Each structure stands twice: as structure tokens, then as C-alpha cells.
């Protein structure tokens, strides 16, 4: 059963085809990794799928519905959530508030009760904060819950983004380099976290440069090169694909690797 | 969270105390008038601060809504025989509707472009008020009928001191309420990162519009209050200089700080009064003081001082 399906997606900036004819699909509980050299179009693909960019060709289906060209907040309403490669933290808010914003769609958000602070608003706030603190505990940030997010170190911000994305209770989660800048221990924690999320039935799409992590946790891998799909399959299949070796290591390196 | 609630109550209690105690030290009715001006300016600035400080959207034409509120209570009773209190509400509704209609297209703009578009709105409103002299009295302005509520005629500096003080308390309470709600968080989130707010489901256009409408309604009420208090209104209230004054109050006091807007209003309204002893150097000194305080308190008076105090407390 497919929940997210991209078909023949492409986008051009000026004359450059940043993404060109890429298709993939992912099912609930599955982890799909998208890898490729720098500039392969991984983040651009994420931006198309999450509605930040509008594809110039191809379609995106979410739970069977054609969602091509929908605004990001509309996609969020339909259960898609994501993190960013270049951090997009709400710097002036506390870590806890960052995650509370993630609960936005789970909250009643009418203006008049907010202005006069009815008891229901206070009650909802308490529930949202409790849920946010649980998520912060899950990513190991509970002790910094009330610090300004702008003051947190890089690795913590990465995990904060994951917590914020999870707060929306997504059915599809796009993670853009969650382990970038993390030490081995933190990477290990992120590994566990991603597995837990997938075990709950969330479809995870992962862009990541840490190949050990990718090979360990992916069900399937899609390799991009210069915006085009190069290879797709299980980690084993992709690892043994000579085209992939060539793209990563060059022709000479691929021959060396084949000999070894 | 509990700390936040009590902080809100403390701010309201201190403000109420200040409003209640000031009359005991005021030597003349002139002081009541100046203080009322502070309360009115603070009210408008608190609203603008929700737009600028919380949601991060600039408005350089905000006096337009101040003008609508002021002229609504002047024109409504004079030309249409509407009771003053109804004209006050009508002004607020008109401001909200205009903010909604104008905000929808222009809030798509960002940064400098939004600044110019709102500037245009302000200039346009001032132009309409000055040229439609049959309705507005043109550049000379027009008298405003006294507000009467249930047969009580609200007049005199002393009375208006309490009425505007009460309005300010109400406006402060509402602004503080908003901060820690889904709406307030959405404002602050889209200020820091629009794209991140969007991907967790915040409809950025809708919340920018909400902030713009809230700010417009605050300005409208402040404008109505000033018109009633003065018994007279002229186009300067809706003009560019007044828009800039409002922005200055917000930035000087501290973006995003409710207390900052009150302090900023107090400084910007009382300073010129205090500086009159310097005669022709008055404006020079005022400008200089604003420049120097922005250099040394870059985040505005209240956020800078509270940061300084908490640093002292720690060391």
C-alpha cells in the first residue's frame, strides 16, 4: 500500500533541470533513502514534495489524492511533515514552543477565545505543552525545553526539528540530513528514533550523507545524479550497482572498488 | 507556564497601579492630558507591535486606521446622526474590513516592498481625508461631538484620564493573552521562519492578515479615543508623520514587548513636553535622544534593560 507517490517529477531553474523525471513511492512503516552526490537534486525534490516549490512536470499523490502544487500547509493538513537541511528553527521561541507550533494542526485555533483567554485556551495550552515535553524527552532535549531555541547547539537543533515535525503526527515524514553535524552517539540516537517512528507506521523519506546510517536503516534507496534517477533498490542492490559506484567514486575508483 | 501566567498578572497589576497612583502626584490638569495622550499612543503601539514585533510584518501607514477611528466618531454623529458609541464600533469594523481587503494582496509582499505598500495606504488615506472637505472639514479638521454613554457625558481631562487608562489596561490584557496561544505562537513562528511554519500547517497568509486586522482595530480604538478626548480632529492624526511616530514608539520601546510599547509611548509623548524648555533645540534634542538610545539599546528600551537586569542578577 503506497501512501506517498511521486511520478515523473521535474523542475527547472532557468535552463538548469534541477530535478528531471524522478519517480518514487513509499508505504507506511517503510524507510526510503534518497542519496546522491552534492547538487544531485535531493533537497530540491524534498521542496517539491513538501509544496515549497511547484513542480514544472509530474504529479505527487498523497494517500491516493493528487496533491501536486498544493501549498505546504495544505500538505501538512494531509499528514506530510518535514525537516530542513539548513536549519529552520524558530530562533526566538523556546525549544518547547518550537514543538508546540508543531502541534498547530492538532489545536483549536480561533482568534476570539485567544484574545480573551478563555479557560478552554488555557486547558489546551497545558495539553499542548505536555505533548511537546514528551516529544522533547523522546529526542533527549527535555532539559533545555525552556531555553531559547537560538541558543542551542547544531545537533540539538537538528533533533528539535525532528521533534517539531513529529508533533504534527505526520503519516509521511521527510527528513533532510538529520544526522548532519552529529557525533556518532547522536547519530546512533537518530537511528533509533527513525526506526521507532517507522515502526509506528509512519512512512519515512530520508536524505542523508552518512552512508553507514543509510545502509543500516533503509528499506529501499533511490540514487540521484544531476537531477536524474540513477539507481533504485534495496541497500544491497544499490551498493552493488556499478553505476552508483562510478557516480560516487569516478570511473577509476569504481574499477578499484570492483577489484577489491 | 505558571511563571508566564503570573508574569502576565504582574504586568497588569503594575500598570493598574501606575495608572491609579499617578493622579496623586499630578499638580495640574495639564498632566492628566499628557498622560491620557500616552495611554492612547501606547494603545495604538501595542496593536502595531502585534503586527511588527510578533508577526514581523512592517506597516508604515498605520495612522490610516487611527484616522478612520478618529473620523468615524466625528463624521458618524455629525453627518449621519449615529450615536457616538455606535460610531466608535463602526470605526473599528471599518478599519478591520479595510485592513482585511488591503492586507490580502499587500501582505504577500515582504520587507521593503511591504513597507512601501503600507506607506501608500497611509498616504492615500491622508489624501482622502484632506480633499473630501465636505465630509471631513479638509485640512482644517472638524469638531467631534462628546461621547455620552447611558446619559453620562464623558468629558474633561480627569475623566478621560481614567477612560483611556482603562482602555490601555484592556488592550494590554488582550495583547498579553494572545502571546501564549496557538495564534500568538503562529505569529512568532512565521516571523522566524515562514517555510518552517508552513510545513507544520500554519496558513501564513491567514495569520499575517489576522495580525494586520488586530493592529488596525487597536489603532482605530486609539484614534476614536483621541478624537473624543480632544473634541476636535485634523488630518495630521492620519498622516505619515503620525505613522512614523507609531513605528518609532514600537521600535524604541522594544519589538515584541507589550511593556515596551507603553514605555516607548511614555518617552515619545512626554519627552517633547519636557524638552520645550530648550525652545528651538527641542526637535534636535529629541532626535538625538532617539538615535543615542537606539545605539545603546538596540533591542529597544524594555528588552535591553531587562536583559541587563537579568545579567546583573546572575553575576
Automatic annotation (TrEMBL), chain A:
Keyword terms, alphabetized: ATP-binding, Nucleotide-binding, Transport
A family per Pfam: BCA_ABC_TP_C
PROSITE patterns in the record: ABC_TRANSPORTER_2
Keyword Cell inner membrane among UniProt keywords: no
Biological processes, Gene Ontology terms: D-alanine transmembrane transport; L-alanine transport; L-isoleucine import across plasma membrane; L-valine import across plasma membrane
Coiled-coil features, chain-numbered ranges: none
Cited InterPro entries: AAA+_ATPase (IPR003593), ABC_AA/LPS_Transport (IPR051120), ABC_transporter-like_ATP-bd (IPR003439), BCA_ABC_TP_C (IPR032823), P-loop_NTPase (IPR027417)
Presence of keyword Hydrolase: no
Domain of life assignment: Bacteria
SMART domains xrefs: AAA
A GO CC term attached to the entry: plasma membrane
Example GO molecular function: L-phenylalanine transmembrane transporter activity
Domain ABC transporter: 4-251
Name assigned to this protein: Branched-chain amino acid transport system ATP-binding protein
Organism: Microvirga flocculans
UniProtKB/TrEMBL annotation, chain B:
Coiled-coil boundaries: none
Alphabetical UniProt keywords: Cell membrane, Membrane, Transmembrane, Transmembrane helix
InterPro entries: ABC_transp_permease, LivM-like
Superkingdom in the source lineage: Bacteria
Principal location: membrane
Membrane topology: Multi-pass membrane protein
Subcellular location: Cell membrane
GO CC list: plasma membrane
A single GO molecular function term of this UniProt record: branched-chain amino acid transmembrane transporter activity
TM helices/strands, residue ranges: 9-26, 32-51, 58-76, 82-102, 114-138, 158-178, 211-229, 249-271, 283-301
PANTHER family, per database record: HIGH-AFFINITY BRANCHED-CHAIN AMINO ACID TRANSPORT PROTEIN BRAE, HIGH-AFFINITY BRANCHED-CHAIN AMINO ACID TRANSPORT SYSTEM PERMEASE
Protein's UniProt name: Branched-chain amino acid transport system permease protein
Phylogenetic lineage: Bacteria, Pseudomonadati, Pseudomonadota, Alphaproteobacteria, Hyphomicrobiales
Amino acid at each position: 500500500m503506497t501512501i506517498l507517490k511521486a511520478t515523473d517529477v521535474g523542475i527547472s531553474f532557468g535552463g538548469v533541470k534541477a530535478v528531471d523525471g524522478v519517480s518514487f513511492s513509499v508505504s507506511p512503516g517503510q524507510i526510503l533513502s534518497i542519496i546522491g552526490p552534492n547538487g544531485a537534486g535531493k533537497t530540491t525534490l524534498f521542496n517539491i514534495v513538501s509544496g515549497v516549490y511547484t513542480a514544472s512536470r509530474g504529479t505527487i499523490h498523497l494517500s491516493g489524492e493528487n496533491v501536486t502544487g498544493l501549498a505546504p500547509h495544505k500538505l501538512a493538513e494531509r499528514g506530510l511533515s518535514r525537516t530542513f537541511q539548513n536549519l529552520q528553527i524558530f530562533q526566538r521561541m523556546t525549544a518547547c514552543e518550537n514543538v508546540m507550533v508543531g502541534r498547530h494542526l492538532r489545536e483549536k485555533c480561533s482568534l476570539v477565545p485567544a484574545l480573551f483567554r478563555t479557560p478552554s485556551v488555557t486547558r489546551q495550552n497545558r495539553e499542548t505543552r505536555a505533548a511537546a515535553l514528551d516529544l522533547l524527552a523522546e529526542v533527549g532535549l527535555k532539559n533545555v525545553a525552556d531555553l531559547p531555541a537560538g541558543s542551542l547547539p547544531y545537533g540539538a537543533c537538528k533533533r528539535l526539528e525532528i521533534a517539531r515535525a513529529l508533533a504534527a503526527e505526520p503519516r509521511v515524514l521527510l527528513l533532510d540530513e538529520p544526522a548532519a553535524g552529529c557525533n556518532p552517539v547522536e547519530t546512533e540516537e537518530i537511528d533509533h528514533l527513525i526506526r521507532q517512528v517507522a515502526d509506528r507506521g509512519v512512512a519515512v523519506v530520508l536524505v542523508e550523507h552518512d552512508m553507514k546510517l543509510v545502509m543500516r536503516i533503509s528499506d529501499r534507496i533511490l540514487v540521484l545524479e544531476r537531477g536524474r534517477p540513477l539507481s533504485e533498490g534495496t541497500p544491497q542492490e544499490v551498493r552493488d550497482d556499478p553505476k552508483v559506484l562510478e557516480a560516487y567514486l569516478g570511473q577509476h575508483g569504481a574499477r578499484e572498488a570492483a577489484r577489491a | 507556564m505558571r511563571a508566564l501566567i503570573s508574569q502576565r498578572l504582574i504586568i497588569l497589576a503594575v500598570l493598574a497601579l501606575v495608572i491609579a497612583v499617578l493622579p496623586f502626584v499630578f499638580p495640574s490638569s495639564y498632566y492628566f492630558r499628557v498622560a491620557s495622550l500616552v495611554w492612547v499612543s501606547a494603545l495604538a503601539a501595542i496593536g502595531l507591535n502585534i503586527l511588527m514585533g510578533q508577526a514581523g510584518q512592517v506597516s508604515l501607514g498605520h495612522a490610516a486606521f487611527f484616522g478612520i477611528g478618529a473620523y468615524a466618531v466625528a463624521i458618524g454623529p455629525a453627518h449621519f446622526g449615529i450615536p457616538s458609541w455606535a460610531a466608535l464600533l463602526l470605526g473599528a469594523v471599518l478599519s478591520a474590513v479595510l485592513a482585511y481587503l488591503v492586507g490580502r494582496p499587500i501582505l504577500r509582499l515582504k520587507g521593503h516592498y511591504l513597507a512601501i505598500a503600507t506607506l501608500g495606504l497611509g498616504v492615500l488615506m491622508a489624501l482622502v481625508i484632506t480633499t473630501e472637505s465636505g465630509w471631513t472639514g479638509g485640512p482644517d479638521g472638524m469638531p467631534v461631538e462628546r461621547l455620552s454613554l447611558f446619559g453620562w457625558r464623558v468629558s474633561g481631562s480627569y475623566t478621560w484620564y481614567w477612560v483611556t487608562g482603562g482602555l490601555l489596561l484592556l488592550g494590554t490584557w488582550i495583547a498579553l493573552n494572545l502571546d501564549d496561544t496557538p495564534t500568538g505562537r503562529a505569529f512568532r513562528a512565521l516571523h522566524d521562519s515562514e517555510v518552517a511554519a508552513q510545513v507544520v500547517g500554519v496558513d501564513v497568509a491567514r495569520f499575517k492578515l489576522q495580525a494586520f486586522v488586530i493592529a488596525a482595530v487597536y489603532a482605530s480604538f486609539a484614534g476614536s479615543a483621541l478624537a473624543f478626548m480632544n473634541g476636535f480632529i485634523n488630518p495630521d492624526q492620519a498622516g505619515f508623520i503620525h505613522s512614523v511616530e507609531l513605528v518609532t514608539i514600537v521600535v524604541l520601546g522594544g519589538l515584541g514587548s507589550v511593556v515596551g510599547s507603553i514605555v516607548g509611548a511614555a518617552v515619545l509623548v512626554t519627552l517633547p513636553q519636557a524638552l520645550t524648555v530648550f525652545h528651538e533645540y527641542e526637535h534636535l534634542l529629541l532626535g538625538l535622544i532617539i538615535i543615542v538610545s537606539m545605539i545603546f539599546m538596540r533591542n529597544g528600551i524594555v528588552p535591553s534593560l531587562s536583559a541587563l537586569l537579568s545579567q546583573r542578577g546572575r553575576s
